[in-house]
Amino acid sequence: MITAVDHVQLAAPPGSEELLRAYYAGVLGMTEVPKPPGLARRGGCWFRAGSVRLHLGIEEDFQAAGKAHPGLRVTGIDAYAARLESHGVSLTWDASLPGHRRFYARDPVGNRLEFLEPL
After folding, report:
1. 3 within domain boundaries
2. Tens of pLDDT along 11-35?
3. Which CATH number does the domain housing residue 29 bear?
């Protein structure tokens, strides 16, 4: 039986690891997790924040998905949004999910991310 989501993997173009580190660790405040040696040679990087695990894997013919995205629950969504905006991240607020405040942003390679907080 499925008991939890272990991680979400997003794709990224070759050579984008430093951009990803700057964004996911520097802007979002996640912690980089070292990849096992056998996987590290493939490139990409892994991040965590609490129980959330995001893996960014290198894809040769990378194209960011238009709609697919992870939904990341946050606390203090206004302060978190201000943090992202202070780093030049463009946000799109969406009030259509009852009982939540949320916004969307894109990482530096174009992956869509949803940030939400229950009311």
Report:
1. no
2. 999 999 999 999 999 999 999 999 9
3. 3.10.180.10
